[in-house]
Design a protein that fits this description.
Among the domains are: 18-154, Alpha Horseshoe (Serine Threonine Protein Phosphatase 5, Tetratricopeptide repeat), CATH 1.25.40.10; 299-394, Serine Threonine Protein Phosphatase 5, Tetratricopeptide repeat, CATH 1.25.40.10. The chain contains 21 helices and no strands. It has helices at residues 4-18, 20-31, 37-52, 56-73, 76-92, 96-112, 116-132, 136-152, 156-172, 176-192, 196-212, 216-233, 236-252, 256-272, 276-292, 296-312, 316-332, 336-353, 356-372, 376-394, 396-518. The longest helix is centred in the last third of the chain and has 123 residues, at 396-518.
Length: 519
Amino acid sequence: MKYPLFIVCFLAYTFSFSQLKNTDSLYNIIKAGNQDTNVVNALFHLVDLFYDEGLEDSSLLYINKGFNLSDKLDYNSGKGYACYKKVMIMLNRGNLKEAQSEGRKAVEYYSLCGKKREIADSYNMCGVVADASGDYEKALEDFETALQIHTEIVNVKGLGAVYNNMGNLFDVQGNYVEATKYHLLSLKNCEKTRNKKGVARSYNSLASIAYSMGNMKSALEYNEKSIKICEELGDKKNLSYSYNNLANVYAEEKKFSQALKYYTLSLNLNKEGNRKKGVAICHTGIGNLYLNAGKCEEALKHHFASLEIKEEINDKPGIAVAYLNIGSSYRCLKKYGEAEAYCKKSIKMASEMGLRDCLSNANNILSVIYENTGKYSAALDAFKLYISQKDSLLNEENTEKTTRMEMNYEFDKKVMATKILQVKKEAVARSESNRQKIIIWSICAVLLLTVVFALYVYRNYLEKEKAHQAIRMQKEVIEEKQKEILDSIKYAKRIQTALLTNEKYIDRNIREMQNRSKI
């Protein structure tokens, strides 16, 4: 985690630079002047790019352009997407009423074109808005609707997102067992789909629960895992949450300088991304840090800064917590009247929304205020409430349940890893067996081809020998005939020679006889 801000800035710069060509091509499509869905899609690609860079005003500008063109084309899918993205921006800005309205519109438009995944995503966002508004019953209803649709269409990634939000809902209510259950389900789904951003988000949420339950070791481990992934991805939004959670752990361990360092890093990232709720959360953390260090004025300043933002964005659960922290800061300053008033305001809101953790801590501070002002009976009553509420949050059974769920998850993960390893080994063995079979069959094929080729060569040899033998026989016949002819010629010549000899002899004898007669 050395030089984390430098790493984030470097990754962000690299990402931004790599988007330039893509942005130019999108602008070219838009400037071409065609009025069709390709232009709508290009506009929404720009929306995503600007939103990811934290440029909400630019994103909102192109959302409106995309919606208007979609409306002109009667393109319901485009109108649904515009409303969906607007929910996210309105939520960040604390305009919960408009966010809820846009969320319902998104559900309506996507329903008209039958896009079930997008319908489920829209219900999920409506649940997030209801959660932020403190309407937990409505939030749970929307989440369950989204869960049902995602299950029906087997959208594992969508299930992971809904599980995460349900975990957050139970976390803010202090139901850590259910919160852990759903965050582990979210983590499992995100790992299955290789959704690194979702994995980091789940680790971050589990770190928050571990911190709330006083398990600093697990909180630190989860935070470090989340930070590592966020830095790799350049995910500044989730990184800001992880830095804040890590700062909470260091604050609990009385490591003031390290806690302040990570609160400041988180604060800067949230300001850069114009995430008002994140900025408010950081002010809360820094305020509590100063409060524990006895710097009451500094603490009060940060808690009022947090309250101002939470009121601006209408974050009701956050307002209840801010009242509690301001009451605690006034107690530190020994301004017990103001302290009591803010604690009671916190208790009222927390009771209405079922914020058990906030309610427990407010009663604890109130008991101290009553004790310091001599109201011992009221102090005892408030302390008893604190103890009973704290026990319901952190009883041994709940701790065992969350630990057991985490252990079961890790065990299942190891079993799955073992199964995967076994499957890989079997695959390797099958591959090796197949390879050996291929080698054996290849050798057999080569041998067979060799035998066939040898037989072919031998056959040709026999045919050639047969042909040569026939030629030799023909040659012998011809030579024999030639010999007979030559012998006949020689015999005829001898006869001729013999005949010629007799003629000469007769002729000579005749001549001799003639000579004698003359005598």
